[in-house]
Amino acid sequence: MRMPYALLMERNLWDYEIKARDKGYGFVAGVDEAGRGPLAGPVVAAAVVLTPSAVLEGLDDSKKLSPAKREELFPKIQAMAHGVAVVNPEVIDEINILQAARLAMKQAVEKILSTPDLLLIDGNQKIDSPIKQWVIVKGDAKSFSIAAASILAKVTRDRIMEDYHHLYPQYEFARHKGYGTQLHRELIAEHGPCPIHRRTFRGVTEYINR
To answer: pTM here?
Structure first.
């Protein structure tokens, strides 16, 4: 990746990929998810394989970027080898959010057309996959590949929630994307949960069958 030399020296966001290739791994995928915390909507995961020649100026952890910058990078990341998976609220309620996030990551990896030989996983949990894995806590701030996956997952999920806004405008999903903001909690209290609310989450459960 052609990034400014000073930035590479300061942040070392290419280190994990370099170490992986030094150990003989040639097809390395970064894996991340978006949407563990919200009270509504799916959890979305992405897996992305960046090539050393990729040009993604400004690539960083999706949480550190503006919506406009994420949208700018989104199609460029989509041009790389990648997979995206969505796990809906009903499954989250059935198996819990941690297992749903791990399932989404597994499915995202399986959607990459060529199987990676190493996964860089954001967090401290491996996924159910025979592929070699390195787990990296706060990996979206430490690895370009994971950062790219975080953007793909975040933008995909935000767009899903904006679509849900049109179905359920009374909850204003376009504003808070399903997270437990004061506004969202007030709207749940006023209208009760809708079909995309996570019924096992505190902040929603209290208002079921009122």
So the answer is: 0.92
Our count of domains for the chain comes to 1
CATH number at residue 161: 3.30.420.10
Q: Residue 4: its pLDDT value, please?
A: 40
**Count of Cβ atoms closer than 10 Å to residue 181 Cβ:** 15
| Low pLDDT (below 50) residues in the chain | 1-10
Residue 130, classed as helix, strand or coil, is coil
Contacts of residue 134, Cβ cutoff 8 Å, sequence gap at least 6: 16, 20, 118, 119, 120, 121
Stated as kind and residue range, the H or E segment containing 69 is helix 67-78
* Strand stretches in the chain, DSSP E: 28-34, 43-49, 81-87, 118-122, 133-136
In a domain, 184, yes or no: no
At 94-145, the pLDDT tens digits run 999 999 999 999 999 999 999 999 999 999 999 999 999 999 999 999 999 9
Count CB neighbours of 98 within 10 A. 13
